[in-house]
Every structure is written in C-alpha cells, then in structure tokens.
Specification:
The chain is an alpha+beta fold and about 350 residues long. The chain has three domains: about 1-65, no CATH class; about 95-135, no CATH class; about 150-335, Protein Transport Mog1p, Chain A, CATH 3.40.1000. The strands form four sheets. It has a seven-stranded antiparallel sheet with strand order 5-8-9-13-12-11-10, with helices on both faces. Strands 3-4-14 form a three-stranded antiparallel sheet. A two-stranded antiparallel sheet has the order 1-2. Helices cover about 20% and strands about 25% of the residues. It has helices at about 90-125, 145-150, 240-255, 325-335; strands at about 45-50, 55, 170-175, 180, 190, 195, 200-205, 205-215, 215-230, 260-270, 275-285, 295-305, 310-320, 335. The radius of gyration is 56 Å and the shape is elongated. The chain starts with about 45 loop residues before the first strand and ends with a strand. The chain is built from four helices and 14 strands. The model is unreliable at about 20-30 and about 35-70 (pLDDT under 50). Keywords: Membrane, Transmembrane, Transmembrane helix.
Length: about 350
Amino acid sequence: MAEDRSPWAHPDTPIEVPVVASVGVPAQATRGVPEAAATDLRSAGEVRSASPRSSISVLPARSLGGAVTRTTDRPAPDVLQFGDDDSDDPVKRNKLLMRWFGGAAALVVLIGVIATLIMVLGNGGGLPLPRVFDDQAAPPDTRPELVKDCPPPSSYPDPQPAPAVPPGPRTVDDESGVSYRAYGDPWEPWPMVWTGGSLKVQYKVGQHFVTEKYSGGDYHASILSSSIPATNNDSLAVDLKCTGRVVATDVRDEYYPKPNRLEQLDEKLTTLGGRPAWVTKFRLHFNKSDLDAKSELVGLALIDVGRPEAAIVYISIPDTHKQYDPVVDEVLDSIRPT
C-alpha cells in the first residue's frame, strides 16, 4: 500500500485555498496554516491545495489542541426572572401590600367567628368544649373540709377588747384558746375524748355528770370545748355562721338518738369575750324507748380566737335535769380568750 503522506511533508509546495463563504470558523481552526492561505478562511469546510494530492481538513474548534492565543469574553450569567419586575412600581407595590393586609384581617375575623361559635354552641348548645389539659391531673385540694364548705368572708368584724374575767372557778382550755365558768358537784372533770362525726372534732376538755344509764351506756349532761381548723394558709378570717352551722349539724347527727326534731331557739353572730363568735341554741326532741330523756337543750358557740383553728364550746342539758338549763347561758357569757 502506498504511503499516504501529509501535504505538510512538502514545505516547498505552494498551496492555494479557494475562498469559501464565511461560516464563522473559530480562530483555532487556522492555527498551523500558512498565514497567506488562512486569510479568508471562515468556515469549518475543507481546505484544498492547488495540487490535487494536497488537502487540509479543518476540524471543529473543540477538537484542536494547543496553547490559547487569546481570551474570549464570558457570556453574561443566566438570570431567572418570573413575571414582570414591579419592585420599582409604587402603585403595584401598594396594591400587593393591601392584598396582604386584607387577607390577614379576614383571617383574624374568621378566627373570632369560630371562637364565638365554639363558646355559644359549646356552653348553651350542649356541645362539649375542647379540653386541652384533660390529661393533666389537677393539684390536690389540701384545704380543711370546713374551708372548702365555708370560704373566708369578704368582710369581717374587728375584735373588741376582752372584758374582765369573771371571778370564780374556771375551766381553761389552752389548746383551744378559751376559758369558761366551772361548776361544783354534781359536775366533775371530763375524763375521756369524744371523737365522732364527719368533722372528727375531739372533745377532751370540760365537765360533765351522768344523768342516766341506758342500753347505749351512760347519758350525760356536758360542758365541753375543742377546736377545729377553719382557715386556710395565713388567713385568720372565719365564716363563723357557715362553720358554726356545720359543727352544730355534726353534733346533732353524732350524739343524739334518731330520728329527732330540732326546735330552734336562738342563732346569731355576736362577740364573746371581745372575740367575734356565732352562737346557736336549740332543743332536740326524740323518743327512745329505753331512755328517760325525751329532749335536750343545746348551746353551741364557735369563737374566732385569732388562730387558724376556731374554738368550740358545747353545752348540753337533758330534760330530766331542767334545773341546769341556765348553765347554757351562764357558760356562753363567761367565755374569754386565753
């Protein structure tokens, strides 16, 4: 096979390049071609020699190697733009702001309407309101029972100076904060602790005597005192009327035969020994076959002694010993704070 030699192997061979219509040949395509032959070269076509056996194939610019003889201008960066550029148009910008404000106002109105419907329909229409904190246990209520039933009043009388202590023997109950008149025979010191009823009041100071014996044991005439928690935390104000009625009901339910009928004789807010107090007097009627007594006179006072606990003085006289009925008023009038 004959050797196909490059036309560049004959440096003395003249070359003629016909003029071809310019197609925008890159400058790299003319590199290495004699300057006279490459003057009018504009396309990526074929470069022919004047000699039939001499030809030049001009390759695309991207396949040519060699040093870069000049730099080309970089194309402008691509910028994505959506819609018209209205940033400099104050009218369109204001319209856009108004649309935003209008949408926000409509959302606020909608939320208000929904909240109103929930409140109206949930409370009045029988629909349950959503409960966000159902899973959270409420803190335990550690207040005394009487405080739960009888919260402190909004107004309260100021204590007055205590009058002088009457002369004569007295029962002093320092734990409850009161003292009161004491009696001789047949009265004797109270020897036990009565704790009963839902309030669990402990009557452990006072006097008594046994009026009769029956199937339930001894029946007593009594003058007793105790105290009961009636305020919460640092508060010293007591709802005396409410608390006193609760204590009186507890006494009636715990210490008297059932059924019984209450005859109210007196009930009032007053002062005892200069301290705010609530006093009630009533007669309980009952009929128990093995008990001679058929009624009993009761006096009960709840006294604010300036402590978280209110003092209680409880007097009871069975109708079998009515000669001692005056003891009720005498003891109440003799109460003084300790």
